From TrEMBL:
InterPro entries: AKR, Aldo/ket_reductase_CS, NAD(P)_OxRdtase_dom_sf, NADP_OxRdtase_dom. Residues 61-305 form the NADP-dependent oxidoreductase domain. Belongs to the aldo/keto reductase family. The active site is at residue 89. This is Oxidoreductase, aldo/keto reductase family protein. One of its GO terms (molecular function) is oxidoreductase activity, acting on the CH-OH group of donors, NAD or NADP as acceptor. Keywords: NADP, Oxidoreductase. Transmembrane segments: none annotated. The record marks 118 as: Lowers pKa of active site Tyr. Residues 1-21 are annotated as: Disordered. Substrate binds at residue 151. The lineage of its organism: Bacteria, Bacillati, Actinomycetota, Actinomycetes, Bifidobacteriales.
Length: 320
């Protein structure tokens, strides 16, 4: 998925670049007359392999297969061009139905949308990954995915090397464009590189104001690995973080606390995949370009970091 749209180049990582680009380009929100945010209003990140990923996507964790089809359709109609799913979410078939109903399963529209999915931990390994991928493509109704990811590193049952080799074969066959991982710590990334001679293009991690994982972010930046945040608002907990700091900044700008947190991510150059099932929230999560954080506000949010995650520990967790 390549694009003509403005983008951040990972060859020049850093917050200052991202913040300057967005502030310069987006002096106000630009909407189509029907209220849909136009495709090219969503910034894109230029990945190390040359592909462009929309910086804002829709995550579909814990949305059942029957419901997710309509939600994906609504999101695409609202202007989303990035959907993130996984085998472990048990809703890939519904995502595929939503893509088809909205007209994004094939043709030129398919080329304009970024689809990420992940192999289940129980299906890691060379042969099992190849089989799993075929099953997932059948569920999604797609010929290829833009990114295929290892969901968890499972260092206690390490098969990321053989899984990666299967993914690399699928990439060579043109069925995967970018190879990514989720929840990999620097030690996991080192281990993978030492075995396969390649770093992932994207590392999707839990990341929000009160769990910033700066060591992981620095490692990824130094190796030109794009960082993608899941739970970007700590499942809502960070909206009231800092004794009302987020709410106070939001009030001063006439936006919601969620928009403040998401804007903070964007200014950091982070890819975000907030989950919502409500169209009005979808639109709000895209409406991030009519305001900017001051350096003082951004620094204050940086100062909310803590040692407390809301998700699982990658050292011990497995997602089957």
């Amino acid at each position: 998925m390549k694009s003509r749209y403005d983008r951040m180049d990972l060859g020049q990582p850093g917050r200052d670049m991202g913040q300057t680009r967005y502030d310069m380009k987006y002096s106000g929100n630009q909407e189509h007359e029907n209220g849909r945010l136009m495709d090219h209003d969503i910034p894109e990140i230029l990945l190390r392999d040359g592909y462009l990923i929309p910086q804002i996507g829709l995550g579909v964790l814990r949305i059942d297969d029957e419901s997710v089809a309509h939600i994906v359709e609504v999101a695409l109609e609202a202007g989303y061009r990035h959907i993130d799913t996984a085998a472990g979410y048990h809703n890939e078939a519904g995502v595929g139905r939503g893509l088809a109903k909205a007209g994004f399963a094939d043709g030129s529209n398919r080329q304009s949308v970024w689809i990420s999915t992940k192999v289940s931990d129980s299906q890691q390994g060379y042969d099992s990954t190849l089989r799993a991928f075929d099953q997932q493509m059948g569920s999604l109704g797609l010929d290829y995915v833009d990114m295929y990811m290892i969901h968890w590193p499972t260092p206690f049952d390490w098969r990321s090397d053989s899984t990666w080799k299967a993914m690399a074969r699928l990439r060579q066959e043109g069925r995967i464009r970018s190879l990514g991982v989720c929840n990999f710590m620097p030690s996991d990334l080192d281990r993978l590189y030492n075995q396969v001679g390649e770093y992932p293009i994207v590392n999707q991690i839990e990341l929000h104001p009160t769990w910033q994982q700066n060591e992981v972010q620095t490692y990824c930046r130094n190796h030109l690995i794009a960082v993608e945040a899941y739970s970007p608002m700590a499942r809502g907990a960070d909206l009231s973080a800092g004794d009302g700091l987020i709410e106070e900044i939001a009030l001063s700008k006439g936006v919601s606390p969620a928009q403040i947190v998401l804007r903070w991510h964007l200014e950091n150059g982070t890819i975000i995949i907030p989950k919502t099932v409500h169209k009005e929230r979808m639109m709000e999560n895209l409406d991030l370009f009519g305001f900017a954080l001051t350096p003082q506000e951004h620094a204050a949010i940086d100062g909310l970091d803590s040692p407390h995650r809301v998700g699982h520990d990658p050292a011990t967790f497995s997602y089957s």
